[in-house]
Amino acid sequence: MTEPTAASLRPDNQSHVDLALRLLDVVPVPMGYLDTDLVVRLCGKAAAEALHRSQEDIVGRHIQEVFGSDDEATRGLEDVLATKSQRSFMMTSSPDSGPERHWEVLFVPDLTDGRLDGIIAVGFDVSDLIEAQEQVSESERMYRSIGELLPFGTWTANEDGALTYVSDSFAEMTGRDKESLLGWAWLDLLPSDEDRRQAASAWHHTLANSDIRDTKHVVRSGDGSYRHLLCRGVRLSSGRDGSARWAGIHVDVTDTERQLRFRDALGVVKDMLVKSLDTDELLAQVGEA
Q1: Of 38, 34, 63, 59, which Cα lies nearest the Cα of 48?
Q2: CA 87 from chain center: how many Å?
Q3: Which phi and psi (to 5°) does residue 20 adopt?
Q4: Max CA separation in the chain (angstroms)
Q5: Three-state SS at 96
Q6: Is the N or C terminus of the chain more exposed, i.e. has fewer CB atoms within 10 Å?
């Protein structure tokens, strides 16, 4: 490895230089140091491994020889020289064996009394984070796709209870575009002001006291008819900021409601048959039911 210049580290003595080199080789975080000519003066072992090159092949070279003149890293370092401001960018490395790795690279200006003496480069392996984000995105895509198979589909809401997504199938049922149903606008689908007040109050109560939402609504469809919807949801805690979110389904239970009402009506008739043998009275009561 090319010996670093004293100016690159501004050490008090040679032992400081040796200590810095040992630290760079031991610390598992990719780190390096460039002078104001953008020549690499220090390169840790982890940094060389991330670039799939030897330390000897990096130290002492201009950054354009390492990355190329039009690479994002080169442009970022040139920007740090011009602005004396911190810059960061994402890069991906593809090892000969194993999965590719994703890095967030940070360039920090080394300033003394406003004078730029060099640039510190630090890399952070964010592969697991990227993979987790991709898995979440894939899960969300699957959730929304499955939602289109359900009668009137799926929904999501933020921690305040405002809808952030409704499935296409639900929007089609209402005859409205999806954006017009987000937030609290879905309350407009309910039959009356009293229904809307009760629904909003029940939803706020759930937000404050439960992790499960389980309720029924009667909503107006695009053809003017009213449908009975079973709304079920669960509180999530997968937001990047740790805030709670909600996801759930809308299921059309109109036919079930009709069956229940028919069964209840039959129960009324059965009770009347048991209690009365007066045909005229019986027919009068059935007519009122």
Answers
A1: 59
A2: 24
A3: -60, -40
A4: 114
A5: coil
A6: C
